[in-house]
Write a structure and sequence with these properties.
By secondary structure, this protein is of the alpha/beta class. About 15% of the residues lie in helices and about 15% in strands. The structure holds 2-acetamido-2-deoxy-beta-D-glucopyranose (NAG) (6 copies). It comes from Dichanthelium oligosanthes.
Length: about 475
């Protein structure tokens, strides 16, 4: 496997992670009970060169895992006896890890697959030689001791273990690079891992963690992958979290609330998912600052409000933008026409209004747009280019306020919405990129530049269905 024997360099590590994450992608982060897993699945090889691993979109744990065993059996041979003599281990590093594992084993309160029964004896690196002992532990040669095999990664994905705390365990592996614990029942505090020089992937997804955002994670400077989704964390996300060097940040399906901090713009993440939480306030305008890196961002199903920021259109590399199921209002800024790489754009279930701009729909023809979901908003019309997309089902505008279209909202509901002055947003007609083939002054400048009036007044005014052109048209 690629993992074993590959020289360990920061660069190769980095590249390898990208491979894994590209396979993962942000949408995978939302799969209900089937969680994307990042198994250290390769039998041999540890964590310093993670390209040997493959994500598994399944909740079933490592392939070929042991059959469920009764817990009484799995508690047998818990390693409570005297420690083996140091010479029985391959090296001192492994001898020092033995009591760490045994102590942790004694705190485990459920083990439906019986994995801890394999945590016996002195062959901690059994998996390195394709053995079956010490399931979940993977060894490799650390960068600073290239001849000493030690535990480089721990992968408990899908084991279903219960333990009240990971403190005194994960933090006691000095050469650890990865800790993956998807679909277990761990809880308590996340231990301080700042003293682990090689550590870069933390996956605590689908566990039983609660309380406020784990403080100990914030200072992890070398982190490339952070996955806390599907837990019961609540409260604010500390602003420095978005300044972490991670390439993937999955915070979805918790109870985080408060505003998404302006530090959002500092994220270097390629995949960022904050979906299915209780965030409020607007999408930060600082998002423009992520244009060099951000590829997939999922805000869906929060309580985000405010106007849809023009700055989103400056994030040139966006492939997936999903802010569905929020309370965001305003027209779609024409800057969205600059999202040449966007494949999926979901704004369904918000309070957006005005016309669906032609520049956006043109992305299906001149760009990569495949799915434009705008249902359950208050749009009153669609640009000429958009008509085709409705027909080809790329564009979904059901349950809006579009006169003459099927499946629209009742006229009274639309009238009430358009009469509400609290929904007014600034409209910037400027398109911050060259769009070959797009002629803003051609047929119906009012169509191309909705809110021309607003450009003077500084605010676009939503117009009632069938109202005069200009304004928020
Ligand atoms: C998930 O695992 C189950 C049981 O092993 C299998 O039947 C199913 O095809 C798997 N699904 C995927 C997406 O791999
Ligand atoms: C372990 O298995 C892999 C793949 O099956 C093989 O390439 C490797 O040589 C094996 N290692 C040992 C030590 O048997
Ligand atoms: C965690 O424990 C609860 C209660 O015992 C159980 O319902 C749930 O399935 C467990 N979760 C996992 C991922 O094993
Ligand atoms: C989940 O965590 C709570 C404390 O937050 C604890 O009382 C409960 O026992 C845990 N459940 C499992 C299955 O470990
Ligand atoms: C932009 O990102 C850099 C790091 O990439 C950060 O230092 C800076 O504070 C960010 N600025 C804003 C306005 O977000
Ligand atoms: C388009 O995106 C919406 C919202 O994300 C989703 O519900 C729908 O299934 C997608 N349609 C297709 C054809 O992929």
């Amino acid at each position: 496997m690629a993992g074993a024997g590959v020289p360990v360099q920061v660069a190769s590590r980095h590249a390898a992670v990208v491979v894994v994450l590209v396979l993962a992608a942000a949408h995978g982060a939302l799969c209900g009970s089937n969680h994307v897993e990042f198994a250290a699945g390769a039998v041999a090889g540890g964590g310093y060169a993670p390209s040997s691993r493959s994500p598994r979109v399944n909740g079933t744990g490592a392939a070929g895992g042991p059959a469920p065993a009764p817990s009484s059996e799995s508690l047998a041979g818990c390693g409570c006896g005297p420690a083996p003599a140091p010479w029985q281990f391959l090296n001192q590093k492994l001898a020092a890890l033995w009591p760490v594992i045994q102590r942790f084993k004694n705190t485990i309160t459920c083990d439906p697959k019986g994995v801890t029964a394999t945590w016996e004896g002195t062959d901690l690196c059994s998996s390195y030689n394709n053995g079956t002992q010490y399931k979940g532990f993977y060894c490799d040669f650390p960068p600073n001791a290239p001849t000493t095999l030690t535990v480089a990664s721990i992968d408990f994905n899908g084991f279903g273990l219960c333990a009240p705390s990971l403190a005194g365990f994960v933090d006691q592996f000095p050469d650890l690079a990865l800790f993956h614990a998807n679909s277990n029942n761990f809880s308590g505090d996340v231990p301080d891992l700042t003293h682990l020089p090689f550590f870069y992937e933390l996956d605590l997804s689908n566990n039983n963690f609660s309380g406020s955002f784990p403080d100990t994670v914030v200072p992890l400077g070398g982190l490339l992958f952070l996955d806390l989704r599907y837990n019961r964390y609540a409260g604010a996300v500390p602003p420095p979290v978005f300044a972490l060097t991670v390439e993937a940040l999955f915070l979805n399906n918790n109870h985080f609330d408060g505003r998404i901090p302006d530090s959002f713009g500092s994220t270097g993440a390629k995949y960022l998912v904050v979906a299915n939480n209780e965030f409020t306030g607007p999408i930060p305008r600082s998002i423009y600052n992520t244009s060099a890196t951000l590829s997939e961002v999922l805000f869906l199903n929060n309580r985000l409000s405010g106007c849809l920021p023009y700055e989103i259109g400056l994030v040139e590399g966006l492939a997936v933008f999903d802010a569905g199921g929020n309370e965001i209002t305003g027209p779609i800024p024409l800057s969205f026409g600059c999202l040449r790489d966007v494949e999926e754009l979901n704004l369904a279930g918000n309070e957006l209004y005005g016309q669906v701009p032609d520049v956006l729909c043109l992305l299906a023809k001149n760009g990569k747009l495949q799915n434009l979901s705008l249902s359950d908003n208050f749009f009153h019309s669609v640009g000429h280019q958009c008509m085709e997309l409705v027909r080809s089902r790329v564009l979904d505008v059901r349950r809006n306020c579009i006169l003459g279209f099927p499946n629209q909202r009742p006229p009274m509901e639309c009238a009430a919405f358009y009469a509400d002055p609290s929904k007014h947003c600034p409209f910037i007609p400027h398109i911050p990129c060259d769009l070959p083939g797009y002629k803003p002054h051609a047929k119906g400048a009012a169509v191309a530049l909705p809110g021309a009036a607003a450009a003077h007044g500084g605010h676009g005014h939503p117009q009632p269905q069938g109202g005069p052109a200009g304004g928020g048209n």
